[in-house]
Every structure is written in C-alpha cells, then in structure tokens.
Design brief:
This protein is of the alpha/beta class. The chain has 7 helices and 4 strands. It has one domain: Ribonuclease H-like superfamily/Ribonuclease H (Nucleotidyltransferase, domain 5, 2-Layer Sandwich). α2 links the parallel β3 and β4.
C-alpha cells in the first residue's frame, strides 16, 4: 500500500529525472526506504509507503525506476544509489552535491547540507520545519497511530527537498557535467 502526491510545476527538467528518497536512517543495508519522490518533465511525483511491509513498495519502485528518463539527478547521489542498490535497483546519474562539496573542501569548510544552501521561508518566521532527521520519528509515529498527518509531513519535507534541488539543477546547470 502506498500514498501518493503529485503536482504540475511551472517549470521542469527537459531531460532526465530528479530523485530524492526518505528513509528510516542512514544505513542502506539495515534501514528502509519510506518514500520515493521525483520530478520528471514538469511533474512532481511522490510515492510514500503506508504499510510496515517494505517489499511491495520496493517491487513498485523496481518497476518504476527503469522507466524513468535518464540521467538521474540527486543531491548526494551516493545516498540514493546506496539505498536503491541495497534493494536491488541500480542507478547512475549526476550528483548535485558534488560542486558544493568541492567548493567547501577548497575553502576548508564542512560539506553543506541542502538546508544550509537553501533555507525555508518558515525559518525566518520561527515556524517549524520538518528536516530529514525528523523522518524516522514521523514514520514510527505513523506506524504506531496510522494517522495520515505524519505521512503528510514526510511528503511535504520531500516536496521541499525536490523543489530546492530543482533550483540547484536549473540555476547552477553549468556547474554539473550534464
């Protein structure tokens, strides 16, 4: 069983697919994928598990991912690759994180998180913002209560990540080897 969310964007990707995962942790061998979000063309699509059983969700992803246009784009592509590979799905693509990682290293700075490159408007008003660190707890609350509000928070977080990654891809296109 899955929940889904989609919307038409006012701009898009002429070639390829931007992807972003939400997981129960950082260990690709032990943790699970709870959400797969992507932008193809001008369409944003998010598929979220709503069952404790991961296998049916992974089967759906195994059918979907090979049909998505290449190249794949992701912020910190190695994270998505690692999780998908652990589930038997191989991808290659363009890492939107790479130029920022290299720039940070050249300046002896720590590697930037997406939230550090692009803040949320809510932060200005001291309103709450869901981060990737919140996803495992929200997922556990959903499994315990079955309240869709927890899934919606994970979906909104993923949508925000995808839109900020789209900005990176569009605005800084020349920074990537496309």
């Amino acid at each position: 069983m899955v929940s889904s969310y989609s919307r038409e964007l006012m701009l898009g990707i002429p070639r390829g697919t931007l992807i972003d995962l939400e997981t129960t942790g950082l260990d690709a061998e032990r943790d699970e994928i709870v959400l797969f979000g992507y932008i193809q063309g001008s369409r944003l699509e998010i598929i979220c598990r709503n069952s404790e059983q991961e296998a049916p969700f992974i089967l759906q992803l195994a059918e979907l991912v090979p049909k998505l246009p290449r190249p794949f784009y992701a912020y910190n592509l190695s994270f998505e690759k690692g999780f998908l590979r652990a589930k038997g799905i191989d991808i290659e693509g363009v890492d939107l994180f790479q130029p920022w990682k290299e720039k940070a290293e050249a300046l002896s700075l720590k590697w930037p998180k997406l939230d550090e490159l692009f803040s949320h408007a809510e932060r200005y008003f001291n309103e709450p913002v869901i981060s990737g660190k919140d996803v495992p707890g929200l997922w556990q609350k959903f499994l315990h209560t079955k309240e869709d509000a927890y899934l919606h928070q994970i979906i909104k977080h993923n949508e925000s990540d995808l839109l900020r990654e789209l900005y990176l891809l569009v605005y800084y296109r020349d920074s990537y080897k496309i």
